[in-house]
Amino acid sequence: MFTKGMGKKxxxxxxxxxxxxxxxxxxxxxxxxxxxxxxxxNLQQDTIVDGQIMELNNVSNVISSIFREHQIKTNKVAAGVxxxxxxxxxxxxxxxxxxxxxxxFSWHAEEHIPFDIADVNLDYxxxxxxxxxxxxxxAACKSDKIATVKQAIxxxxxxPVIIDVDAFAMQNCYEINYQPKxxxxxxxxxxxxxTMNINIVKGTRSVFARDAQVGGSHYTSLLQKELGLSFEQxxxxxxxxxxxxxxxxxxIQPIIASVSDTLALExxxxxxxxxxxxxxxxxxxxKILLAGxxxxxxxxxxxxxxxxxxxxxxxxxxxxxDVDDKKFDPExxxxxxxxxxxxxxxxxxGVEA
Length: 353
Description:
The chain is an alpha/beta fold. Helices cover 34% and strands 29% of the residues.
């Protein structure tokens, strides 16, 4: 989103999340796509806090380790950003020429951005054009956040050529794998460790996107606090393991449910806002697709389906991408698939026509 006109071929999609780094490289295979390389490695706790990289060397070492371990030769990288430093908004502007839009966009965007316009990287995409107005999708990110992500990649000896928005990367992955109909309205939820990207998509157009500061780590933290568990113990309990010996038996479900309620409230707020801004005649949201490590929480899909009374599915980022079972262990792939959507979406930037 923030780097135009640069070479896009042979890119590795690199998703630097709060708890792990994911890397994906794709290649064209006839009329379709195949998975060329894939890597996944956890980060040390508190390496990234509130979306900010606190330990640059730890992140760059993990990136280097993934490329080395999986023998990834491509050095050019597409990475993503999300969190409170990122603003995504659909705005309506008066009719003007493309040159006028380009020249005046930062001035128009300034009223929609809670940061100093001089401190952000700004980009836009024209999504609609009528006789009286232009519909524009605006994306802005604080420049220091982009600089830090680039620095982590460069310290690993790689070249960052594209910085995208995580919500849009997941949307790219969705379009390739689910080939949505023009009027199909779907909510894409990417539930990371500390941030949930929410993108409501109509066909192939993002109609409303925002990030909420809630994710899988909130379950872990509350389990630690309420039950006196270590981080590792709380992670295991969150995934459905029994309480460790020596811990006083206590119902886990109310603790899990309290975080799920917070998460669902953020989704509801987004859906409510979408409904108030939707075009006349647009239907409601027809389905939710869940991605990210948080999507693996036992029972979360069923909880959201009951809460919103619409189908909820776990997102499959390799649904229409060929994966060689001899090269990529199917059991391992099943375990990490929900967490790879953003990395796949970023990697698609390297195989676009």
